[in-house]
Specification:
Elements: H1 7-11, H2 14-22, H3 25-29, H4 33-59, E1 71-78, E2 84-90, E3 93-100, E4 103-111, H5 126-138
């Protein structure tokens, strides 16, 4: 009787199969591994999009305040590993400030001056354009 099904198996009601499935709740309630992987990949995609948006905003200066701000940074230079001298425009005067770790000190004030246009080498990508122009001129 190897190939024949037993009469008891054929006559067993459907509710006994449901009762057997209820005896193993860990198997019935466990989420499929593919679903967990899909959630994890979705989370990675969302985090990558947030990082790309933050980089884009910082790179192109969109995150900075609008042009109608009362205080504007004119320029600055690093004078140490954690110290800078900055020129800040407030109204019609420039304030030269020293910035150190946890401290900002006003050094002097100057009347507002016209800022000279920045040379091509000082602008981002300007040195590359200048180098390429020199190369093409040499040919």
């Amino acid at each position: 009787m190897k190939g024949r099904r037993s009469l008891a198996m054929l006559a067993a009601p459907a509710w006994t199969a449901a009762a057997r499935a209820a005896d193993t709740p860990a198997l019935a309630s466990a989420p499929p591994a593919g679903g967990l992987l899909q959630v994890l990949l979705g989370l990675i995609v969302v985090l990558a999009l947030m990082a790309a948006l933050a980089w884009f905003l910082r790179r192109f200066g969109v995150a900075r305040g609008g042009g109608d701000s009362v205080v504007k940074i004119v320029g600055g230079v690093a004078v140490g590993s954690r110290e800078r001298v900055m020129v800040v425009e407030v109204g019609e005067q420039w304030i030269v400030v020293g910035v150190a770790a946890g401290r900002v000190s006003a050094l002097t004030t100057l009347p507002r001056q016209e800022t000279p246009p920045t040379p091509a080498a000082a602008t981002p990508g300007g040195w590359l354009k200048q180098t390429l122009d020199k190369r093409h001129a040499a040919r």
